Amino acid sequence: MYTTDMDPEVAQWVELLRSPDLDNRLVAVKTLQHLGDEDAIEPLIGALSDENPTVQEIAITTLWEFANPIAINPLIECLSSPHENVRSEALSALKELVSTNDLMRLLDVLQVGNVHAQLNVLVLLRKIHDAQALPYVMPFFESENPELREAAVITLRYLNQVVRCEPALALAKDPNEAVRRATALTLGHLSDAAVVPLLCELLTSDEDWQVRRNAAQSLDILADPVAVEALVKAMDDSEWQVRKFTARALQKTPDIQALPVLIKSLADEYSDVRRDAATALGKLADTNALPALQQTLNDPDMDVRIFSQRAIDAIQKSQPETSNV
Q1: pTM of the model as a whole
Q2: End-to-end C-alpha distance for the chain, whole angstroms
Q3: What is the tens place of the pLDDT at every residue in 121-144?
Q4: Is 9-21+30-37+45-95+105-159 a CATH 3.10.129.10 domain?
Q5: What is the DSSP letter of 300?
Q6: Least buried of 120, 178, 249, 254, by fewest C-beta within 10 Å?
Q7: CATH topology classification for 232-316
């Protein structure tokens, strides 16, 4: 069927690819991968329907290596496979192969109803970045499947020029912590009026420390002075990663009310927190921080000593009366 004008060596393996014997088909598909002859593309696309998932997976890998656009649609169909390894390999291949030309095809698949395909397409849309996908993504914010809600809100942050999306804000209160974690990061890319207050609430009240950490990261991106009160409160969080990213956010919005908690954090158990608190104090440029910063020049962690010295230098440089030193 495929072998008319093929290299005879390729043709014999293509023929074996249709063998009823699984071992023969495995040998054939592996050999075709090794030979790398593009005449095998169509037979390999046919092998995507093989009853054995290992044959399918190797065929996907080989088509991926050929990088021929003719394989994109057949590979998209593999995203619905009941076999996890087949779906995973197809997704990896398509991450490199799809382009904006494939957007409409992907959006069609998104509406088919196969959960595996929907999850994978939501991932692929992150590569294409096209805001046209937004109306197709938003319905998944209300999906009964938490994995789809999580995937959709992650995809939202990758869509170009989308800076407002009020329906996504409700996911900040989602009962599933993985959805809230993803939402907390996505909110840092939005500018709806309710975003900063929502992030402040997540930072100070959410029971999941990773949600609180992600909220701090987003507040760092947004750099809104409205968040300072919540950030000051979060510097006493029980989890060091929350304190670390909160200190980083305070670097972007220097405010005198943060001075006491930042000075206290110079004695934090974790060096990352001490380092970022020192940097935040340097940005604050208040001479009241100098005695505490001087003490950290003996810190056991070299980074803390370096960043504390930089903070001291920054504070001193900001004071005109020290210019004659």
Answers
A1: 0.89
A2: 88
A3: 999 999 999 999 999 999 999 999
A4: no
A5: S
A6: 178
A7: Leucine-rich Repeat Variant (1.25.10)
